[in-house]
Structure formats: structure tokens, C-alpha cells
Amino acid sequence: MPVTRGFVRRRPDGPEGRLPPGQYDTGSGWPVLTAEATPRISPDTWKITVDGLVDHPTSWTWDEVHQLSRSTYTGDIHCVTTWSKFDVAFTGVSVDVLLEAATPRPEAAFVMAHSSTGYTTNLPLSDVTGGKAWVVWDHGGKPLAREHGGPVRLLVPHLYFWKSAKWISRLELMAHDQPGFWERNGYHDRGDPWLEQRYQGD
Amino acid sequence: MSIDDVAPTATAWTTGRIISKELPTPATVRLRLHVDDRMRHRPGQHYLLRLRAPDDYTAQRSYSVASDDSDPLLELLVEKLPGGEVSEFLAEVAEVGDVLEMRGPIGRWFTWDVRTPALCLVGGTGVVPAIAMSRAARHAGAPDLLRVLAVGRSPEETPYDDELRRFGATVTYTRHATGTRPAGPPSAAELAPLLDGIELAFVCGSSRFAGLAEALLMECGLSPSMIRVEQFGATG
């Protein structure tokens, strides 16, 4: 592809090895990108359900999910619109903890994450197990803001951030992969930032 | 055959040549490009634009398309952001004849099918997809299917102000009084008459604008499932 006449790099390189290709450091900003109206969800009525191909479909209320063993993710996040944000800290519960309670059946190989808005995104089970994914309600020591998915969102930091569904309400285990909302609307099925899996055809 | 059948799902990088460049408002640059191997698009879709430095460093951004599918050129209107690596380059350095890497069309959600009665509630450079939709509506001979309420600071700072008015859009200004209207954000009373019979509402603008627009639509009785949002910009 051609060099763009007159264009030179204006942004710094970013920390060594931490900026995936085509990304820039958004610094202290945190852009908001959503496809739907931002809902107002009260913790009093919120719950999360793990169901589908599991032996024990289970739901947790706000109080119940806070009784589970907590963990914090500290690291970087990457959005398909090319910003990355370094050294964020989210606290919640590991998806491993939720799955352990629900007990996936052997044939479960994929997860559909559902938001209370109707938004969906699909993931291989292997991308949300083994300490790679969380359900979080706290960002930087404060309640997660509504526009960023509060009160509770999914966090899958090793994939582009559209996979980290805001306003999460359900994890549905499936035997076969099915495209979710953005995956049906032009985005890549998996979304690995290091492989620049942004759009269909990548 | 409808555009749904021909707008591609998978796209590849190609190149586009700048055929014309204007600075229609103080903070925007309008480019019209000839895109090689251009594919058909639905109004509301966007294109990626990628700049490449001599050291192979690249910067890419996504911009809504202003032109409709029948236009032989692809039109983009880009907001010039202070320190914006791509937008300042386009406004200050890029010239007619330059070739840029392009990819599109992208996005199949924030799009209008040119059949469904719809409203655009758009602000600032968020008017761009409403321009693509209104051009498509006119081209299809069905301007009545689309209503537009656009919000700008003043006539001089509102992109496509004249074209919006010619289309019959309601254009409101937050910092400019007209003979019939004081400066200020649109009210539920101004919005409500535009909602009769619509099945979809497209909201496009800054994050702050989108929040206000969603609240206004819901105050007027629209259900969240009828609202599609495209917002840009940062929060703290």
C-alpha cells in the first residue's frame, strides 16, 4: 500500500510490546461507543444467569454475586476503533467461578453473552475460562459508570472490547458457534487485537 | 433487488483519490473521493481511512459516509479535532489528487433500508449519516419516509445546514437565536410532531448529545428497541 504523501507519525510508540498493531494510546480518555440507548439498570433488580448447556442453570442477584470470591484485572484494554487504554483496574468475579457453579456439559464449546438491552456477542468457551474473563462492577475503585456498562459488564481484555458486553445479564453455553450482534453486522467472529481481527474478511 | 442484497459483508483495503476538498465550516473538512473497486453501501455505513508514514506507521479512523449509493464519488465529512492525528492531516496537509488507503463499507446496524419510516436526531458532525439517508430518500423518490431533527451551535457551525433545510429538516441551534426560536437544545414539543408513524430513530452525535437525545426520545414515548445510536467522543 502507498505511503501517504506528507503524513508522519505524531503519536508516541507506547509502552514496549503493549500496543497492538493499528492501535493508539487514548491516555486518560475512555471513549464511549454503543449501538443502543444506554439503559438505567438498578442493582436491586439486576441479576446474571448462566444457562444453556450446563448441568445447573444458575442465577445470581447483585447481593449474591458480591458474596462470591472477587478478583481484579489490572492491565490493558483495546477497542476495535483503534484506541487502547493502559493499566486499567476492574474488580468483579472471574467467569470461571460462575461456570464452576453452573457446571458446563462436555459438549459446551461456545458462549453467547447477552445484555439486558438485547445486545449479544459470541465467544469460544476457551476465551472466557482459565482466568481470562470477568464479570465486573468496579472500575478503578468506583462503581462502573452506566455508559461503560454499569452496573455490571463482561470483561474479556485479551479480545477487542466489543466482546466485553456492557449491561451483561446472561451467559448462554452452546455446542456450536453463532454470530452475535456485531459479528452479524460486519465485525470479525473472534476479535484478537494482536492479529487485527477487526472486520469480516480479516 | 434491494441494497441489502448487494452491500458487502466482508471488505478489503483499497485506495481512494481525493477529487475535491473543502472546509465548509470552521471545524470540518469535506472530501469527495474516487474509490477503486468501490462496493455498494447503505446510508448510515462508514468507511475506514488509513494513513501510512514513510516508516510504515499507520493511523486509521472510521468516518460516516455522507454520499448515497447512487453518487459516483464517496463523500466524507471529517471533524477537525485539536491534535487529531488523522483529522488535522486531512484538513491541513491532504490535497486534491492524493491517494489514501480506504476500506468499506462497514457496519450493518446503523443503516437505513430506505423503506422504513424513520427519524434522524443528530447533532454536530453527527448530521453526516442523516445526509446520506436524506440523499438516499430523495434518490428513491421517498423523502416523506425520513424526518430529520438536526442540532448545531449556529448556522455557520452546522455541517450541511443549507442542505438540511432544503430537505425540510428541522434545524435547531443551541447558541444562535432565530426570528422564531431562541437559542437552546431541542424540546420534546419540537420533537414530538416528527415521531408520528416512525418505526426507527437514528441518534448520531457526541456522547453527551447521544445521552440527551436518547432521554428526549424516551420522554416522547419511544421504546429503547426503536432507537439506534452512533456516538463518538470521550468521557473522563
UniProtKB/TrEMBL annotation, chain A:
Residues 37-182 form the Oxidoreductase molybdopterin-binding domain. It comes from the Bacteria. Pfam families: Oxidored_molyb. Gene3D superfamilies: Oxidoreductase, molybdopterin-binding domain (3.90.420.10). InterPro entries: OxRdtase_Mopterin-bd_dom, OxRdtase_Mopterin-bd_sf. Residues 1-29 are annotated as: Disordered. This is Sulfite oxidase-like oxidoreductase. The lineage of its organism: Bacteria, Bacillati, Actinomycetota, Actinomycetes, Propionibacteriales.
